Amino acid sequence: MTEIRLHLSVRGLTEEDLPFCGWAGSPKHVRELVHQIRRAEAGEIDYLAVCTPVGRPVAVGGIDYTVKAGAGTLWQLAVHPALQSCGIGTLLIRSAEQRISARGLTRAELGVEESNPRARALYERLGYRAFSRELDSWDVEGEDGSLQRYETMCTLMRKELV
User: Fold this and answer.
1) pTM of this prediction?
2) Residue whose C-alpha is closest to residue 96's, from 23, 45, 33, 28
3) Domain with residues 9-160, CATH architecture
4) Which of 56, 117, 143, 146 has the fewest Cβ atoms nearer than 10 Å?
């Protein structure tokens, strides 16, 4: 068996990263990340990038501090499809939890689509517990550039940070 070790770092996502984030979502989603970078500059959120030694993002995700008092809400977590199940999602979430704790907050929350059991299993392994469900929706861009509304049921999960 051959083993490959990646030396990864976690930092804030930048506009220079966006051309390398096409795997993270539709072109519309990647374009809208500029808005999230501005929110991070304003201190409302953190938007993290897990990067290779040459600085290319292989995972991204946000922490919104404005959703719930006392909590950081994780959202838009994504790992490059070719690198899933390699521990990179765990690194991203642990880094997000450290950012939340550094702000003096004691809880991390997230929503996971009920159609994504692999992600839910990861969150449960990391100590997240379900506490509710809610319908969520957002616009997605079709192949032809048209926008369609995507709706999904999400399980809400939380973890107390100590």
Assistant:
1) 0.93
2) 45
3) 3-Layer(aba) Sandwich (3.40)
4) 143
Q: Which two tokens stand for residue 126?
A: 């990391």
Q: Is the pLDDT of residue 78 over 80?
A: yes
The DSSP code for 15 is G
- Quote the CA–CA distance of 10 and 60 in Å, as a whole number: 9
Q: What mean pLDDT is reported for the chain?
A: 95
d(CA 151, CA 139): 9
Instruction: Give the mean pLDDT of 9-31.
Output: 95
Amino acid letter, residue 70:
G
Beta carbons within 8 Å of 87's beta carbon, 6+ residues apart:
none
Q: Is the model's pLDDT at 15 over the cut of 90? A: yes
| Distance from C-alpha of 8 to C-alpha of 24, rounded to nearest angstrom | 18
Q: Can you read off the two tokens belonging to residue 129? A: 């517990």
